Amino acid sequence: MTQTALDRNPHHEAPSERSVAEIEALFAMPFNDLLYRAQQAHRQHFDANAVQLSTLLSIKTGGCPEDCAYCPQAARYHTGVENQETLPLDTVIAAARAAKEEGATRFCMGAAWRGPKQKDLDQVVEMVRAVRALGLETCATLGLLKEGQAEQLREAGLDYYNHNLDSSADFYGEIISTRDYQDRLDTLQRVRKAGIRVCCGGIIGMGETRRQRAAMIAQLANLDPYPESVPINNLVQIEGTPLYGTEKLDPLEFVRTIAVARITMPKAMVRLSAGREAMPEELQALCFLAGANSIFYGEKLLTTGNPHTQQDRALMDKLGMRPM
Question: For a tag on the chain, would you pick the N or C end, based on fewer CB atoms within 10 A?
Fold first, then answer.
């Protein structure tokens, strides 16, 4: 087997820059060898039998002006998702309290905005303070942030800000035209500058090539520093969106992506994210073996389904896994 810079590093720590070719070489490894490498990286930094439980709540659903080809919340697509007002504070607190009672330790709040206006941000700041007061880690995904907005979220106590790259730069134009790739990088930079931890990943199964998947992982791994949380989403095809009917990704390629994310970002929480409802237990188990150590926990993501908490608990029991 050809030795790459990654193989020569006995601790699997990131070199200063990871090339797309190096990451493609990881994708191309024999499956068992790849999972072995991922397990080594995982066990060096984490308990291999512990999983973080996060709950996601849509605090503002539908009516988004963007044209993300995967998203049922885009106002221009006819998906049956209605434009709703921002949830009242009491509703968010009740949902966070219920999530904590079910065992979640992080509570994520998502809003279908291009970016928050100040009046929107004022509401989110109240939510962050209230959820933090319950003893939960807080995360928000609100779209593009302007100068000064990340600092307001930090002062409210926000622990993580989620803003996914979604894809590689060279595939991005195939799925989104209403914002540039650089817009996303700028928001991530503002989050880092404000001292908030970054949650950033992507979506696979949108028709991209393996090289483009490798390029997305390279972009994430080369962020300085790389994200503390890396959600890997398997496209959930929603009728009415442009990506509905896309050829489905081979499940083992999804596992490979989890493993490559773990090897290249060894200290990150790698989250088995959207698309999990359609995954059989055996596939989820392979993803945990490949280094996933975080899941969204609860019966709904922003607008799509998710396994019931009882199902997740039963699977964790079968696998001898436990919440972090």
Answer: N
Examine the pLDDT at 304 and tell me if it is beyond 70: no
Residues with active-site annotation: 64, 68, 71, 108, 139, 199, 271
Q: What is the reported pTM?
A: 0.89
Three-state SS annotation for the chain:
CCCCHHHHCCCCCCCCCCCHHHHHHHHCCCHHHHHHHHHHHHHHHCCCCEEEEEEEEEEECCCECCCCCCCCCECCCCCCCCCCCCCCHHHHHHHHHHHHHHCCCEEEEEECCCCCCHHHHHHHHHHHHHHHHCCCEEEEECCCCCCCHHHHHHHHCCCEEECCCECCHHHHCCCCCCCCHHHHHHHHHHHHHHCCEEECCEEECCCCCHHHHHHHHHHHHCCCCCCCEEEEEECCCCCCCCCCCCCCCCHHHHHHHHHHHHHHCCCCEEEECCCHHHCCHHHHHHHHHCCCCEEECCCECCCCECCCHHHHHHHHHHHCCEEC
Is residue 197 within 8 A of residue 137, CB to CB? The reply is no
pLDDT of 16 reads 58
Contact between 131 and 96 (Cβ < 8 Å): yes
Phi, psi of 21 (to 5 degrees): -65, -40
Tokens of residue 322, six digits: 């436990």
